[in-house]
Amino acid sequence: MNEKYLVITTGGTIASAVTEKGLAPKMSPEELVTYFKPSPEIELDVKPLMAKDSTNMQPEDWLLIAETIKAEEENYDGFIVTHGTDTMAYTAAALSYLLYRFTKPVVMTGSQIPLGMQYTDAESNLQDALLFISDTDLTGVFIVFNGLAMVGTRAVKTKTQSYDAFESINYPYVARIMHGKINHMYQPKPESLNLPARNKLVLDPNIFMLKAFPGMTVDIFDYLLEHAHAVIIESFGNGGLPFERRNLLPGIQKLTDAGIPVVITTQILEEGQDIALYEVGQRVVEAGGITAGDMNTEAIVAKLMWLLAYTQDMAEITRLLQTPMAHDMGFD
């Protein structure tokens, strides 16, 4: 029986060409799909959705991608989304929540060098994505890039130019693809989380993210109190924030007292956080900061937008944020 996959194109470097103002998406979806080399048992359809540099990708675009995939769930065995690399990890995380418990695999890929250019990595990434999706029994969202498949909520772009642009942070790679062969490396365990049925895909993008630095003004919290539905703070180390001189803790307390969740993550990519290890972290928790374990920032942003669209209850947001979902937290 033939397998049938839908290729959804959104633009990005993979479809870009040189213009007077630099690289920009120009390649037609019909031309892009010719670079796949499927076996006779595989049928590919293509659906052009947008032609964007992923820097311009917004939550509304995540919703459009998710709605398109969901509408075609019964018609295809899986979905390949071509996407720019700069915000691919954010989109992959967002799709992981918007399509939570989706019954088919969704694979995202792109390239560091456009199709048709010398030394492009695009053709190999497209072939690897096709090989992975046709040889996996996993469902959910994945990124396939430079011969590695990784869970969508764990991918982070760590390099701007090299082929190995993405890493799986605090979680094993799912598979390695090399010379047309796939080596399955890790099988994520099924999750048993039951969530209420949601009839409509929605997000609340009204969040604000701060990166802590020595000397950061405390006045920013007054602005956030009036304009943000939730705040993410990238703290130092294990979750600490300063409480001497420019004391940030009263600002956090002010937000949480007003019912605005304040999620505390770390600026350090590897190994997550142990916020109770130091006094500077314990004081953050006492002020109402919500710890995020070993989740990466991209996943926190997407998950928080997804949660805020359905509830403003602080306790429920805290519970669900700290509940592993789409393999975004903890190592199962």
TrEMBL record:
Every copy of the Asparaginase/glutaminase C-terminal domain together lies at: 206-320
Enzyme class label: hydrolase
Q: Which reaction does it catalyse?
A: L-asparagine + H2O = L-aspartate + NH4(+)
Q: Which Gene3D superfamilies match?
A: 3.40.50.40, L-asparaginase, N-terminal domain
- What residues sit in the active site? T13, T85
Q: InterPro entries attached here?
A: AsnA_fam, Asp/glu_Ase-like_sf, Asparaginase/glutaminase-like, Asparaginase/glutaminase_AS1, Asparaginase/glutaminase_AS2, Asparaginase_C, L-asparaginase_C, L-asparaginase_I
Q: Name one GO biological process term.
A: amino acid metabolic process
Keyword annotations from UniProtKB, A to Z: Hydrolase
EC id? 3.5.1.1
Q: Which domain of life is it from?
A: Bacteria
Q: Report the residue ranges that make up the L-asparaginase N-terminal domain in this protein.
A: 6-187
One molecular function GO term is: asparaginase activity
Q: Which positions does UniProt annotate for substrate binding?
A: S54, T85, D86
Quote the NCBIfam families the UniProt record gives: asnASE_I
Q: Name the protein family.
A: Belongs to the asparaginase 1 family.
Full protein name = asparaginase
Write down the species.
Weissella kandleri
